[in-house]
Amino acid sequence: MPDPKYRDALIQIEASMQTGGQVVLDEDEKRLNSRLLQMKQKEVMRADFPPAMHFFKARDLIKESPLFSLLQKVPKGAALHVHDLAMVDVEWLVKNVTYRPYLYMCFTNSQSIRFIFSSEWPKLLPYCSPWVLLEKLRATTINSTELDDSIKRNLTIFTDLDPDVLYPTQDVIWGRFEQAFLAVLGLVSYAPVFTDYYYQGLREFYTDNVMYLEVRALLPEHHDKTWALKTYQEVTKQFTADHPDFFGARLIFTVHRGVNSTVMASVVEEAMKLKREFPDFMAGFDLVGREDQGRPLWYFRNELSLPSDRGLQLPFYFHAGETNLEGSEVDQNLLDALLFNTSRLGHGFALLRHPVAKELSKKRGVALEICPISNQVMKLVDDLRNHPGAALMAEDHPLVISSDDPAMFGSSGLSYDFYQAFVGFGGLRSNIGTLKELAMNSIR
Ligand SMILES: O=c1[nH]cnc2c1ncn2[C@@H]1O[C@H](CO)[C@@H](O)[C@H]1O
């Protein structure tokens, strides 16, 4: 028989290596911990265990879970991976935006909708029906709840239908996802809405006990980008003044990775200029959109080298490894992001298959922004107990949990993702130390 003492020692060493293993707990935390672990034990035993199910089917189960209520109250540190157009519950958008005057709507060829605020009849879009003034449509619609519901369905990919039937492949779900973003864009890019929208976004995270945010923002063209950044900054200041215990927010300026190198060069120029104008408020730069369909980082190596060629500061926060196409060009993004000195890695879902990138990111303390619900909904993993985060957490790889696009996935703030990480890939052993370390990682 192996020596039980030796076995105990090994178990202890392993536990101390796992995320949270080295966190010191005070007496209150220890008491809370035993309650937390009892609750988790119960959750794990249930037949309809949420991390094993698609989030769309699991959401209401999670919502009713006592462990989830507790996680909502726990301070979760910072949300470091959140996209501008998916911060706010669509319910709010429908109630607070679509009833405003001067809002026009049209129906696209690809079964989506578009919006625009305009004082006069807007120009026709080639792929859309003629514009209708929403106020007028409402006046002639008998069932306004139905109209609101159908608008809502177009602003999110969350659904009550079977998600695997509605979205059978990654292509289908990414298609619907991008359509929903375009629908939201028309609602929020109108200046008066934009300020209210962003304030509400901060409120949703603040209410969920998140103290700081980094928002990846496209800064659409309707006004110039300096205006957009300034407005973001002012609203953040206002929110922090209204909620003094809120720490604040910064922006990561992003561009869609579908652009060509000429556009990329000018966007990087713009990013450098904005970084000079907003040295504190602007955190850095990133590329967004589906990695598998966009060009890899290496394709843009010349453009992305502009800042360092000129000796200018433009920190990168690259999405990388949000793919399961192992060995593809795009699969190289993880290593390339690190070679470009990325400050963090967005998703890093593919990291386990890249031992060198894994070693490098660990050594340099480059944290992964893990977004469990997003990875499940966008079909990178079915059962969240199998998320690569499980192995990375066990190895004490630097990581933070984030929610990516809560409004698109029907979640909100950070708590749903914390729940999935805590009971899903955290396994039975993850404890209050794990939560504490995750929160601390996010504010380091
Ligand atoms: O998980 C993601 N990976 C890559 N891009 C994303 C993800 N979520 C949202 N966006 C991108 O962000 C833009 C809005 O800011 C959307 O157009 C979408 O393409």
TrEMBL record:
GO terms for biological process: adenosine catabolic process; inosine biosynthetic process. It is an enzyme of class 3 (hydrolase). Keywords: Hydrolase, Metal-binding, Secreted, Signal. It holds the Pfam family A_deaminase_N. InterPro entries: A_deaminase_dom, A_deaminase_N, ADGF, Ado/ade_deaminase, Metal_Hydrolase. It catalyses: adenosine + H2O + H(+) = inosine + NH4(+). Its EC number is 3.5.4.4. GO terms for cellular component: extracellular space. The keyword ATP-binding does not apply. GO terms for molecular function: adenosine deaminase activity; metal ion binding. It comes from the Eukaryota. Residues 5-71 form the Adenosine/AMP deaminase N-terminal domain. Its cofactor is Zn(2+). Its main location: secreted. It is found in: Secreted. Gene3D superfamilies: Metal-dependent hydrolases. The keyword Secreted applies. Residues 174-443 form the Adenosine deaminase domain. Belongs to the metallo-dependent hydrolases superfamily. Adenosine and AMP deaminases family. ADGF subfamily. NCBIfam families: adm_rel (TIGR01431). This is adenosine deaminase. It comes from Neogobius melanostomus.
